[in-house]
Amino acid sequence: MTFQEKLRAAAAQNRSLLCVGLDPDQAQLPACVRDQDNPTLYFLKHLIDATADLVCAYKPNFAFFGALGEAGWPTLKATLEHIPPSIPVLLDAKVGDIGNTAEQYARMFFEVLGADALTVNPYMGRDAVAPFLAYPDKGVFLLCLTSNKGAADFEQQELADGPLYLRVARKACEWNTAHNCGLVVGATQSAAFAQLRQLAPDLPFLVPGVGAQGGDLEAVVRHGADAKGGGLLINASRAVLYASAGTDFAAAGRRAAQQLREQIEACRAA
Amino acid sequence: MTFQEKLRAAAAQNRSLLCVGLDPDQAQLPACVRDQDNPTLYFLKHLIDATADLVCAYKPNFAFFGALGEAGWPTLKATLEHIPPSIPVLLDAKVGDIGNTAEQYARMFFEVLGADALTVNPYMGRDAVAPFLAYPDKGVFLLCLTSNKGAADFEQQELADGPLYLRVARKACEWNTAHNCGLVVGATQSAAFAQLRQLAPDLPFLVPGVGAQGGDLEAVVRHGADAKGGGLLINASRAVLYASAGTDFAAAGRRAAQQLREQIEACRAA
Questions:
Q1: Is A228 an interface residue toward B (CB < 8 Å)?
Q2: What pLDDT does residue B269 have?
């Protein structure tokens, strides 16, 4: 089963376009998990159990595991193993390097860790992206227009035929011969969604920035959904993970995820 | 001691602008190391021992360690511990993410692993770079104009005031308030060195691409050196690591490094 098929099946099964980001920030873990053998793993397992019927995907961010040092790899691996096999895993590492190095990253994330999809930084161009696209069953999400303020520094700069991020989107369509490419488009960039969806009618968009970053969910769904009302992975991390700092963290995370899924579904119905 | 001071001291001590890239590709390890408990570590330790008096820095590439799975982190850590403390370590991971994630990468590479410098992808703009620049004693090398063919796809695209990579260089100068920023400029891009050095007279340039990728060493040194004839970390990975597939791999790596250092010194003297 390809990433795209797995994503569509999970989205249909759970009636959800919600992707939950797994960013275990040590400074924000609830006090009640700190006595566990592996607080991060305990915390994430409970959140996964509490939300697995509400999401279309999980998005672990590699940095938060890497910052754990030696414990990072086994913790990430055990987290991935705890995710039900029907839910796709989109690993967020924003990698990008020359060909022989990109091959190592592809091996690391797709083969050794078994992720279904990966975020990739397009700055270095086609040959830095190709080793990932060479896995037809995996998803490759190119950073296009991100949710942060710094998007103005380079991504939104004007080339002869439009801003840089549109060129990234056009190139993604051109390189998408195996139908495994997607784009990262921040929810705070709602004005850009209509044009990007027109340009890339079939690409899935990973959309961070609806929670803590304050993006406009309604505009994202209205302008960003594909012809079938899907094609979006709307990500929330902090809003779900840290919904409560108490012993009810998993239940509170579930409520936050439920609320977000319902908001998204209401937008889709409208 | 800051990264810049450590770099200058190592370059002066070893009379070298050569940086050796530590990219342990499992498919290329000499047969004679395969029986070792940790073939990668054994291989790298011998190469470090054979070259530590010839280099101004080592540049381990995270991907090649990550691809080892669970063994990757301890192998990387033990490799870094084996590098003499007088030689700076530039960790090549080309990271870039929003602020709270970038902070995790900074912690991972600067604090937990203790690297002296890091490569960072500038695509997401200032707030994705700032958490690294916030470490005044560490070096932050922004990808500017890379050595691969894909550089034409985005990096060399023309904005109103010149190509994108020049904007990255101008921003790097603007963001360099702690004097800890550098640029990555591929050796295959020799035509761009004079302009980049004029624009950024004081920034160190990490220059990959002289070995396997075939860059023009003489043009790099002539146009890329700073006013004192330094400011370059000229990287070779495969040309040194895989100089021999036999039991003489370390001696052959030393000869390759020596030859490159002498070529660079000859260019500096000219």
A1: no
A2: 93
Asked if B94 is an active-site residue, the reply is yes
Could you state, in order of their start, the residue ranges of all structural domains in chain B?
14-269
Inspect the interface and report whether the beta carbons of A94 and B97 lie closer than 8 Å.
yes
- pLDDT band with cut points at 50, 70 and 90 for residue B270: confident
Shortest alpha-carbon distance between residue A31 and chain B (Å): 20
Q: Which of B23, B61, B101 sits opposite A63 (nearest CB)?
A: B101
Give rounded-to-5 percent helix, strand, coil for chain A: 50, 15, 35
Average pLDDT, chain B: 97
CA distance B244 to B250: 8
pLDDT at A270: 86
**Which residue in B94, B108, B160 is closest to A96 by CB distance?**
B94
- Choosing from B94, B138, B149, B228, the catalytic residue is B94
Q: Do A125 and B151 touch (CB under 8 A)?
A: yes
Confidence of residue B212 (pLDDT cuts 50, 70, 90): low
A3-269: CATH, from 3.20.20.70, 3.30.1330.10, 3.30.360.10, 3.40.50.2000? 3.20.20.70
**Number of residues that this document lists for chain A:** 270
Using CA atoms, how far apart are residues B268 and B270, in angstroms rounded to an integer? 6
The answer to whether A95 faces chain B, any CB pair under 8 Å, is: yes
Angstrom distances, CA of residue A241 to CA of A20, A118, A183, A247, A250: 8, 21, 24, 13, 8
Residue bearing the bigger pLDDT, A39 or B216: A39
Of A70, A129, A155, the CB nearest to B123: A155
pLDDT tens readout for residues B93-121: 999 999 999 999 999 999 999 999 999 99
Whole-number Å distance between alpha carbons of B253 and B270: 26
Contact B98 A147 (CB under 8 A): yes
Residue A238 contacts residue A211 (beta carbons within 8 Å): yes
**Given the structure tokens 């899924």, which residue do they identify?**
A261
Neighbouring residues of B94: CB distance < 8 A, sequence distance ≥ 6:
A95, A96, A97, A121, B119, B120, B121, B143
Please answer yes or no on whether B155 and A125 come within 8 Å at the CB atom.
yes
Task: Give mean pLDDT, residues B18-46.
Answer: 97
For chain B, say whether A245 makes contact (Cβ under 8 Å).
Answer: no
Q: Concatenate the DSSP letters of all residues of B165-190 into one string.
A: HHHHHHHHHHH-TTS-EEEEE-TT-G
ipTM of the complex: 0.97
What pLDDT does B227 receive?
95
d(C-alpha B156, C-alpha B265), whole Å: 30
Model confidence pLDDT, tens digit, residues B72-92: 999 999 999 999 999 999 999
Which CATH number is associated with domain B14-269? Answer: 3.20.20.70
